[in-house]
Structure formats: C-alpha cells, structure tokens
Amino acid sequence: MELYHLRTFVTVAEEGNLSRAAQRLHLSQPAVSAHVKTLEEELGVGLFLRTARGMELTPSGSRLARTARDALQRAQDMLHQARSLRDRITGDVRVTRNTDSGYLRLPALLQSLSDNHPQALVHVDCCDSYAVAERLKAGAMHAGFAYGDFRDDPSVTALPLAMASVRVVGPPQWAERLSAASVADLASMPWIWFHPGCPFVGMAERLLAEEGQRPRTAAVINDEHTIRALVASGQGLSLLREDLALHAPLGEQLAVWPGGALGLPISLVALTRRMEEPEVKALMDAAAVAWGLDAGAGSQ
Predict the structure, then answer these.
(1) Most CB atoms within 10 A, among 65, 115, 231, 249?
(2) pLDDT digits 0-9 by tens, 52-101
(3) Residue 6: Cβ within 10 Å count
(4) Predicted TM-score of the model (pTM)
C-alpha cells in the first residue's frame, strides 16, 4: 500500500467523481481509476459503488476513508517533525565577541537561540575584530562579531547590525583643552594607540592625516576597557565608542572632543560558503531578532 494510493482514495471520496479527482491530483483519469482498483484489491473490499452520478463510497469505504485521512495526516505530521528535527540544532554553536556583551545584545541573542534550539550548546569566546576572518577560515567558530567593513572580502558575509558612534576622548581634566582643540592640537597630544590590525587605526589615521604623521604613542592597547582606564588616568587621547566614554558605571566620564563622531560598522560575520549551515543560519537569525532587524534579515 502506497501513500499516493491513499491520497487518491481520499480525493475520489471527496470529489465523488473520477474526472474531478484526476484534475485535482494532476493525474489522468485512467491512472486514478487504476489507483482505486489496486487499493481495493490489496484491501480485499470494495471502496466505491460506480453509479450514474459518479463514485459513491460503500459502507466499508466510508469507514476506511476516515482511516486513510488519519494516515495521511500522520504522514504529513511526520514530515513536518522530520523537517523540524533537521533544522533544529542539537550540538555545539560557536560565536565570538569583540566587545562587551551588553553592547552586542548577546543576552537577547542567546535567549532567541535557546527558544528555537533548546538542545544547542552555545560557546562564546573573545576575538578581536581583525582576527575574526582568520579564525572563521580556520574553522574555529561559526560566526563572530566584528567592527569594520567586510565588503572587499568575498570569502565572508557580514550581517550589518548597527553603526557605532566613535569619539575622540581624553582625560576628564583635559575637557577645557579638548573643547577648543583643532586636529593639529590633537596630533600634538599623546595617544593610546591600537593593534595594527584594529579598524580604529584607520579611523585615527584618516582623522589625523593632514598632520602627516602618527602622534606620539603613550601605549598600544588591545582592549577598550583598558584604553578607557588609561585615558581616564591622564595617559593620553584615544578613540572609544561614545557609550563607553560616557557610561558612568565604568568610571569617571571622559572628556569628548566636540569635533564630531566617527561611524564604525558592527556586524556578525561568517564564512560565505557556510551561510547555509544550520548553526550559522541560527546565529544570524538570532542576531537579527536581538537587534530588531527585519524578519529574514539574518538569512539573506
């Protein structure tokens, strides 16, 4: 007994006519008639009375039609369940963060993952933005948060989440000095600098380009919170996200140069060739939910 025999049986029972059933099933009328005959022979009972008005169910056919409908529904339910199990993650999901979890909305992302994939085990590691692409290519993770523009690298796909507002910041006691500072004045002051691969380097260099040289470096730091602490202690200027500069719980509010904010993209990045993998799709979808992006943005 085949499912398509049951489907034909139920359709003929509903239509009461071989021709209409054939149209509905996109089959020829002889094929529909052959399905019914094969099922009757296999079951050993007559399912229909063939009358001038069409096909009428026999008493046995009427009872068996209900059973056939139930069987088709159970088969459909099984198919949906199998698809759900296929798409549901039951193993490890690895993602890296490049900055603080609150800014990245990691709690909301993890909640979304838990809601949709309760058996997934999520691993969150730290990775600087400049190292994300390398670690993705090494297979160390499914996706990673990163600052910067990845459009020139076709091997990775980035889900844009926001544009971070980055400001030139200085020690609180330099507030008056910074308020009237020109770019030349900024270049003359000591700076807390960045790892060569950090996207903040390019931003700072473009800002100070008219001076033709990198300013005096007080330290090279690879961590935003350490940069903030050193700036607050009077070591020099630096670039920081505006929310980090002004966030009181992190310490005394820093002085902010009024010359304007610099924009820096923040994205969730994955290898292009792995975008269809369930773990990557789940992370992208969860990030889209956490950041309030349009439905389906994570799967594009």
Answers:
(1) 231
(2) 888 999 999 999 999 999 999 898 878 766 655 566 788 899 999 999 99
(3) 21
(4) 0.70
